[in-house]
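re: that chain from earlier
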Amino acid sequence: MTRYDLIKAAESLLRVCDAHGIDPKEVHQLAVYEDWQRLIAERHKKVWIIAYLSQQYGISEATVKRIAKRMRKKVTP
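^ sequence. v structure.
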C-alpha cells in the first residue's frame, strides 16, 4: 500500500479532521484520555487525576487539562 492508497482510503475521515482542526498526531493522546475517562468513572477527584496523569505520561498538568478539554469537544461531519 502506498501513501496515496492510505490517504485515499481515509479521505472522508481526514477531511472531517481537517475541517475541525484535528491533528492526526493527536492519536498519541488517546491513552491519556482513556485513562482520564477511567479515573473519572472511578470517581477520583480531578485535581488528583491531573497530577497522576501528568506524572504517568511525563507531561505538564496544563497539557493534561488541554487534552481532556479537546477530546470532549463534539464533532459533526
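Residues 30-41 form the longest helix (12 residues).
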